[in-house]
Specification:
alpha/beta, five-stranded parallel β-sheet, 5 helices, 5 strands, globular
Length: 189
């Protein structure tokens, strides 16, 4: 069962946390990798920054239900939405500290961020805000709760073929489930 937790909730230990601008972004770019981590026994979660309320198709409530479906297909232990403004993400200290709070709450070893070069401005900003949030979470004097903690590793994920990737994850065994997770977003596809 997926654990949706508020900022005030108790900590939950994750091995891997993917951070993305919108519900469905993680499923598209690295959903198969997330499923592979689950298959290997790792505790996996997703942090969506916006509710997708500005999107052309669907609405925030419907996309929340679609995200719940996809989360179950993937086998997530945790999913949370910061409800930052869709089509309004900017690199601010306030937004980075919200992510830092989640990093401290979930203490992931690995964080997966969107690759920073993107067509959609929110995707690019999610990368920058996420990277800053990971750094700030390790600074003890930040004005957020919990003990300072910084993820051990950050990697970047992209679905673009025109980039020179440093590695590729074989998701052959997970591909069908990745497609099912993406298909949960009926309003988007």
């Amino acid at each position: 069962k997926i654990m949706e937790r508020s900022m005030e909730s108790q900590e939950i230990k994750l091995d891997v946390l993917a951070i993305a601008a919108h519900r469905d972004d993680t499923e598209i770019t690295c959903g198969g990798t997330m499923i592979k981590f689950v298959d290997l026994g790792y505790a996996v979660g997703i942090l969506d920054l916006t509710a997708g309320e500005a999107g052309t198709r669907g609405d925030a409530e419907t996309r929340a239900e679609e995200a719940k479906c996809a989360s179950e297909v993937i086998g997530l232990k945790y999913r949370h939405n910061l409800e930052l403004p869709d089509a309004g993400l900017f690199l601010t200290q306030e937004y980075a500290l919200k992510i830092a709070e989640i990093i401290r709450q979930t203490t992931p070893e690995l964080v997966i961020l969107p690759y920073w070069r993107q067509r959609h401005p929110d995707h690019a900003m999610a990368s920058e805000i996420g990277c800053r949030g990971c750094f700030l979470s390790g600074l003890a004097k930040m004005p957020i709760s919990r003990k300072a903690y910084r993820p051990r590793k950050i990697i970047y994920s992209s679905s673009f073929l025109d980039l020179e990737h440093s590695f590729v994850v074989d998701i052959t065994a997970q591909f069908e489930r990745k497609c099912r997770a993406v298909a949960c977003y009926e309003t988007q596809f």
